[in-house]
Design a protein that fits this description.
Blueprint (H helix, E strand, L loop, with lengths): L2 H16 L12 E7 L4 E10 L2 E10 L2 H14 L4 H16 L6 H4 L15 H16 L5 E2 L2
Parallel strand pairs: 1-4
Antiparallel strand pairs: 1-2, 2-3
Length: 149
């Protein structure tokens, strides 16, 4: 990663980590799910109002490292208004991006591409993907708490 991109990566992580977007309880959610990363101590709950296969509203609450909170913040911005099928495609593209498995379309990822730098820190991949595994479980109405272990 070049220095300019590294600086931008750090700036976005700090901004979204300190001032997460869409943080809070969504009272009219019809899909709620919890996720936990025991390695880092990240915990979050994702609240979704989904209708006719589309994410109309999404919020999260919880605590964790800056990467976990920034990833959740960016994820909520990216999936709002998307269909469940589009969210699933974003899940796979994001996972490929941060694990360097395959070549995801960076154009399709939008602002999420800034988290590409997580791939340089393998111990942080679970922090960045916790919210994604949690939203996926919520949309599938999976009853089990998501754990990265």
């Amino acid at each position: 990663m070049d220095d300019a991109l590294r600086d931008l990566y750090q700036e976005v992580i700090v901004d979204h980590g300190r001032h997460p977007r869409n943080r809070g309880v969504l009272l009219n959610a019809n899909a709620v799910h919890e996720g936990y990363n025991p390695l880092c101590g990240d915990q979050l709950t994702v609240y979704i109002r989904e209708e006719a296969g589309r994410v109309l509203e999404i919020q999260f609450e919880g605590h964790g490292c800056a990467i976990s909170m920034a990833s959740a913040s960016l994820m909520t911005e990216a999936v709002r208004g998307k269909t469940v099928v589009e969210v699933e495609a974003l899940f796979h593209a994001f996972h490929d991006l941060v694990t360097e498995q395959g070549k995801p379309s960076e154009a399709a990822l939008g602002k999420l591409v800034i988290l590409k730098g997580v791939a340089e820190f393998p111990m942080r991949v679970k922090c960045a993907t916790l919210c994604w595994h949690t939203i996926r479980a919520a949309l599938r109405h999976d009853p089990a708490v998501v754990s990265t272990e």
